[in-house]
Amino acid sequence: MGIGYLLFIPAAHYMEYMAVMFALFVLATGVAFLQVALNPLIVKVGSEQTGSARMNLGGSGSNSLYGPSRGDYRYRGTYLFYPTAEN
Questions:
Q1: Which of 3, 24, 55, 74 is least surrounded by Cβ atoms within 10 Å, i.e. has the fewest?
Q2: How far, in Å, CA of 31 to CA of 58, rounded?
Q3: Rounded distance, CA 28 to CA 81, Å?
Q4: Cβ(7)–Cβ(23) below 8 Å
Q5: What sign for the dihedral angle of Cα 78, 80, 85, 87?
Q6: Could you give the CA distance from residue 31 to residue 87 in angstroms, rounded to a whole number?
């Protein structure tokens, strides 16, 4: 996954579409491997009856709520959920 992130640096520098697509493919492959490897661990952490709920919450819970706001702050310097006079 980290290699996929690092591949975006030369891809952005040379502005090559196929390099960006390759970096995105490497990144997505790493995320998929990470999720597959962590599924048994997440199920075994607590009771097996609530294992599926923990997997769903870990994959989409707070990340889908806070991710766009953090990205907005990173690129624009303002938070998505707190508009300013410039927005």
A1: 74
A2: 13
A3: 28
A4: yes
A5: positive
A6: 33
The Cα–Cα gap between 26 and 5 comes to 8
Find the farthest-apart pair of alpha carbons in the chain and give their distance in angstroms, rounded: 50
Contacts of 47 (CB under 8 A, 6+ apart): none
Q: Where are the domains of the chain?
A: 1-45, 48-80
Residues in the chain: 87
Tokens (6 digits) for 71: 């990205």
